[in-house]
UniProtKB/TrEMBL annotation:
SUPFAM superfamilies: PDZ domain-like, Trypsin-like serine proteases. Its EC number is 3.4.21.107. This is Probable periplasmic serine endoprotease DegP-like. Keywords: Hydrolase, Periplasm, Protease, Repeat, Serine protease, Signal, Stress response. CDD domains: cpPDZ1_DegP-like (cd10839). PROSITE patterns: PDZ. Residues 272-345 form the PDZ domain. One of its GO terms (molecular function) is hydrolase activity. It comes from Sphingomonas canadensis. It catalyses: Acts on substrates that are at least partially unfolded. The cleavage site P1 residue is normally between a pair of hydrophobic residues, such as Val-|-Val. It is found in: Periplasm. NCBIfam families: degP_htrA_DO. Transmembrane segments: none annotated. Residues 389-400 have a biased composition (Polar residues).
Length: 501
């Protein structure tokens, strides 16, 4: 089971309030929980007093999925260092067996099975999945063939040979509401046929992973390791989600689980069943959440839009003239919001689509038309971020002391050391106060400050004096922070840093 560590821990508060009846004029708005408005004392028609009958019908279609994997492990000689071999590997690699467990469910009488990609993917680098076994609730075992899988949506389709097999259908998750009852069936910790129930805690939950599928149904129904790939049912017995992740500081269930909504999963599954690959739109930008302090510092509205921190050369955004520092607020006719991110909207469009993007640049709104590219494989998008080299350039200045930084101008020698473009001006951070706001927001020695952003204006910094003047101007304007554009090994981002009084 994967863990959604990108989420911040949330505190869910509950309480009890006394009810006070007041005289209200005719037509006045009433409280949401006005007596008589909600009938919660008895189940509404169709709601079960027990889930037993429903589970008895559904459970035969839920399966256990196990894989056998072959992993090559390089052997080392424990006496190598003693005899001067420097700890180098000795002998041929050794092959070891590994196993994984998860859940899934049948969606056709002839044996198509849906599960998570991570249930049937190799669990370690260099590992090879040798076999996949599907075990039905009645104990029958089948060797499964992998029909297709998609890493980004975390979905996979298997096929077992059989007929008249029990199966379930997808429902309409678009009408799922917070507070609805849901039932999850799966095989947590390898325990077969485990049923849990709860409610929908949230819909369209964004976990921060980005991409076309970062919108989940959140539930408090117990989901643990091994539940991955199992179905989430509504009270009509329809599959409205595929259990995929949990948020857990402990590794066990803490009441925060996530399911891929059926409305997101079914189109992908339909394509995988046909042997088709999944293609998604690609803009070619580095994105950054527009926090309240960044919005204030850049002079743009808060709560809407995504800040562009990097534009890849020769990709769709660059060809359309999108720049670093632009705030994209709308894709087509859809607003960019925390629940409907730029990454989500773009990835759900087809490559080659021509779409208008509304953005804010220098305080002014404008629209650019972009022809989307094709999103590269996830492995290609992953970037390796090496550690900064421990070299401190000489003649540093404490001009940035009020924000906890000591800096020096960038030159070709330093640029080579910190992996920066030497042809653009900037200041290199050579020392940082570990207790400063800058340190808390991830600024490190070796980072390069390229620009200062004040409202709609962005100004390059070429000297420590430039930075000092910018800090002083911010303080004179009554600002408690300053927005800097900072690069780490060429990857840039905007950072709002508090100014010490």
């Amino acid at each position: 089971m994967r863990y959604a560590y990108a989420l911040a821990t949330a505190l869910l508060l509950s309480g009890t309030a006394a009810t006070l009846t007041l005289h209200q004029p005719a037509g006045a708005q009433t409280a949401q929980n006005e007596p008589g408005a909600i009938q919660a004392s008895v189940p509404r028609p169709g709601a079960p007093m027990s889930f037993a009958d429903m589970v008895a019908k559904l459970q035969p279609a839920v399966v256990n999925i196990s894989t056998t994997q072959r992993v090559q492990v390089q052997q080392t000689n424990p006496f190598a260092e003693m005899f001067g071999f420097g700890g180098r590997s000795q002998g041929a690699p050794q092959t070891r067996k590994a196993e994984s467990l998860g859940s899934g469910f049948l969606i056709s009488a002839d044996g198509y099975v849906v599960t998570n990609n991570h249930v049937v993917a190799a669990g370690a680098r260099g590992a090879v999945v040798e076999s996949i076994t599907v075990t039905l609730a009645d104990g029958r075992e089948f060797k499964a063939k992998l029909i297709g899988r998609d890493a980004q949506s975390d979905l996979a389709v298997l096929k077992i040979e059989g007929s008249n097999l029990p199966f379930v259908r997808f429902g309409d998750s678009a009408h799922t509401r917070v507070g609805d009852w849901v039932v999850a069936i799966g095989n947590p910790f390898g325990l077969g046929g485990t049923v849990t129930a709860g409610i929908v805690s949230a819909v369209h939950r964004v976990t921060g992973q980005g991409g076309a599928y970062d919108r989940f149904i959140q539930t408090d129904a117990s989901i643990n390791r091994g539940n991955s790939g199992g179905p989430m049912f509504d009270l009509n017995g329809n599959v409205i989600g595929i259990n995929s992740q949990i948020y857990s500081p402990t590794g066990g269930n803490v009441g925060i689980g996530f399911a891929i909504p059926a409305e997101e999963a079914k189109p992908v599954i339909d394509q995988l069943m046909k042997g088709q690959s999944i293609e998604r739109g690609y803009l070619g930008v580095g994105m950054q959440d527009l926090t309240d302090d960044l919005a204030e510092g850049l002079g743009v509205p808060a709560g809407r839009g995504t800040l562009i921190r990097q534009v890849e050369p020769n990709e769709a955004a660059a060809k359309a003239g999108i720049r670093t520092g632009d705030v994209i607020v709308k894709v087509g006719d859809k607003d960019v919001t925390p629940d409907q991110t730029l990454s989500y909207l773009i990835a759900n469009l087809k490559p080659g689509s021509r779409v208008p993007l509304e953005l804010i640049r220098d305080g002014k709104r404008q629209t650019v038309n972009v022809t989307l590219g094709k999103r590269p494989p996830e492995e290609q998008l992953a970037q390796f971020d090496p550690n900064d080299e421990n070299s401190t350039p000489p003649e540093s200045s404490s001009a940035g002391a009020s924000i906890g930084l000591a800096v020096t101008p960038l030159n070709p020698r330093i640029a080579r050391t910190v992996g920066a473009d030497p042809d653009r001006p900037g200041l290199v951070v050579v020392e940082i106060d570990p207790s400063s706001d800058a340190a808390g927001k991830g600024v490190r020695t070796g980072d390069v400050i390229r620009e200062v952003a004040r409202g709609a204006t962005r100004t390059p910094v070429t000297s420590a004096d430039d930075l000092a003047k910018a800090i002083a101007a911010s303080k004179s304007a009554g600002k408690s922070s300053i927005v800097l554009f900072v690069e780490t090994r060429g990857a840039g981002r905007f950072v709002s840093i508090e100014i010490a009084s």
